[in-house]
Amino acid sequence: MMISSRLRKSRGFTLIELIISIVVVSIALGGVLLAINYTVTHSADPMLQHQALAIAESYLEEILLKPFADPDGIDTESTRALFDDVDDYNGLSDNGARDQTDTAINGLHNYTVDVTVASTALNGIGDTNSKKITVTVRHSTGINMSLSGYRTSY
C-alpha cells in the first residue's frame, strides 16, 4: 500500500515546473522570431547592393569611354547628353539613376548618384595626365557604395 501511494505522488508535473518550462519555451521562441524578423527585413539588401553596383559601373564605364581632353574646347556643356569629355562629369549629381541621355530609369528613383573627377598623379609620378573618377551611389535604405577608376591621357 505504501509503494502505490509513493507512485501516485511522483507522477505528473508541479505548477512551478510547468511555469518554468513555459518561460523557457517562450524565450527560445522569442529568439527564433527575432532571427526570422531580422532575416525578412534585410532580405532585399543584397539586391539593392547589386543594383547600386550596377549603377556605379554603368556611370563609370560611360565616363571612362569619353576623351581625356575636351575635343571641342567648350568646357561647359549644359546637359549630360552633351558631355564630351571626362571633366564634364565633375560635380554631376543625379537624384534617381539616369541613362546617358539624362532620362530617368524606371524603378531606380531611390538612388542618388554623385560623380567627382580629380586630376591625380599615378604611383607618385609628378605627371598629372591622369584623372581619378569616383562614382558614389546611395540608396534611401542606407546603402552607400563608391567605385573609382582612372582615365589617362594616352
Automatic annotation (TrEMBL):
**What SUPFAM superfamilies does the annotation carry?**
Pili subunits
Task: Give the highest taxon in the source lineage.
Answer: Bacteria
Query: Which spans are transmembrane here?
Result: 12-36
Entry keywords, A to Z: Membrane, Transmembrane, Transmembrane helix
The answer to whether the entry has keyword Transmembrane is yes
- Does the record's keyword annotation contain Membrane? yes
InterPro entries listed in its UniProt record: N_methyl_site, Pilin-like
PROSITE patterns, sorted: PROKAR_NTER_METHYL
Q: What is this protein called?
A: Pilus assembly protein MshD
Write the lineage as a comma-separated list: Bacteria, Pseudomonadati, Thermodesulfobacteriota, Desulfuromonadia, Desulfuromonadales
